[in-house]
């Protein structure tokens, strides 16, 4: 059956415009009518509120048609609808009852908008801290339960994760720390030579790498490489509903997914930091042989004689703490993934930013503690 063309007319009743519609108002027949109808409505109503809808001329009507007619009339929930067909009246009532009022655009000044953005960011930061603290508490409970029953530690999964986060990261950590050692030595020679103290470049390289740069560079590389990988892996499992399936069959995702990754990173971070320190020192030693006519033996002899062992310990103490934080944040953000692959990408980026931020904050706290402890 050929559908009748939808018709739109406007009339006056008690000085208010009335929308009169006829023909067929179905999803197929109203295709492309929106623009034409809007122009007609603005011309006829002239900005006035439509008081009623006369739908006695409508022959066919479905939900899309009823919604379009109500939208033409202004989308008011209490607008009067007249029709001789009881089914049409009921359909209009259902659509009217489920209409949502368009949200009025709120206009605010730039200062208010700026303050609002800061407030929302602060609120989100506070919520994120609370959720992270709760997640750390959940991890602690699982660790205590596993300590009481050591079989729950999945050694095989830990070894596999260590291969990913430690062995495969050796090259990138080694190269970057070597180059940083070269840069520190070069800058040290250039600056200290002005005071005739260029031989102290050895101390600058040793203390800088041991206390700060070795562990900090390693943590940043691990956050960008392994922390993001944790988020992406667990997030993809969330999207594929594998995590929900684990919960359904009685497996705790914290124990099966999070704990092996945290243990692997806690064990790997000191090893990577040690490797980064050694390659950084080697870079500094190579630079010193070029700029100071030192031999490698002389460099390491002076390093042994002048740089205390506590400089090495201070960096190594930080390493496992940074590992816990990076792994926990990576896994936490992975478990927050909802819906789609786009969410995986957004939360992976967020996990890297949060991890680096937390590492730097912790590094500052460690510096204050070591200063107070005089080490």
Low-pLDDT windows of residues: none
Task: Please give the order of strands in the largest beta sheet.
Answer: 1-2-3-4
SSE class: alpha/beta
Could you give the order of the helices and strands? EEHEHEHHHHHHHHHH
Number of beta-strand segments: 4
How does this structure look, described?
There is one protein chain. The protein is an alpha/beta fold and 375 residues long. The protein is built from 12 helices and 4 strands; from the N terminus they run ββαβαβαααααααααα. It has a 4-stranded mixed sheet, with helices on one face. Helix 2 links the parallel strand 3 and strand 4. Helix 4 crosses helix 9, helix 7 runs antiparallel to helix 9 and helix 7 packs antiparallel against helix 12. It starts with 6 loop residues before the first strand and ends with a helix. The mean pLDDT is 87.
Can you describe this structure in just a few lines?
This protein is an alpha/beta fold and 375 residues long.
């Amino acid at each position: 059956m050929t559908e009748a063309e939808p018709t739109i007319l406007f009339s006056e009743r008690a000085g208010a415009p009335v929308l009169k519609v006829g023909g067929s108002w179905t999803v197929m027949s109203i295709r492309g009518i929106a623009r034409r109808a809007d122009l007609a409505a603005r011309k006829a109503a002239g900005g006035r509120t439509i008081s009623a809808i006369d739908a006695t001329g409508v022959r066919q009507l479905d939900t899309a048609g009823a919604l379009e007619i109500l939208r033409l009339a202004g989308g008011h929930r209490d607008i009067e609808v007249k029709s001789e067909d009881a089914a049409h009246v009921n359909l209009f009532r259902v659509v009217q009852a489920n209409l949502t009022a368009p949200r009025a655009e709120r206009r605010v000044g730039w200062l208010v908008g700026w303050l609002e953005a800061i407030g929302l960011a602060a609120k989100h930061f506070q919520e994120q801290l609370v959720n992270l603290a709760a997640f750390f508490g959940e991890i602690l409970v699982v660790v205590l339960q596993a300590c009481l029953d050591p079989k729950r530690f999945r050694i095989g999964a830990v070894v596999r994760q260590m291969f990913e986060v430690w062995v495969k990261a050796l090259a990138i950590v080694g190269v970057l720390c070597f180059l940083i050692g070269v840069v520190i030595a070069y800058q040290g020679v250039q600056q200290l030579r002005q005071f005739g103290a260029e031989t102290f470049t050895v101390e600058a390289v040793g203390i800088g790498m041991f206390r700060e740069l070795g562990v900090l560079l390693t943590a940043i590389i691990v956050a960008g490489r392994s922390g993001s990988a944790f988020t992406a892996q667990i997030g993809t499992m969330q999207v594929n509903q594998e995590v929900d399936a684990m919960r359904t069959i009685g497996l705790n995702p914290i124990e099966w997914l999070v704990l092996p990754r945290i243990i692997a990173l806690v064990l790997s971070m000191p090893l990577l930091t040690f490797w980064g320190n050694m390659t950084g020192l080697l870079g500094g030693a190579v630079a010193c042989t070029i700029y100071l006519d030192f031999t490698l033996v002389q460099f390491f002899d002076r390093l042994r004689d002048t740089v205390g062992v506590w400089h090495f310990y201070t960096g190594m103490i930080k390493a496992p703490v940074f590992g816990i934080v990076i792994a926990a944040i990576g896994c936490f953000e992975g478990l927050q993934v909802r819906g789609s692959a786009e969410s995986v990408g957004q939360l992976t980026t967020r996990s890297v930013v949060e991890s680096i931020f937390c590492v730097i904050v912790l590094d500052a706290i460690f510096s204050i503690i070591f200063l107070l402890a005089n080490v």
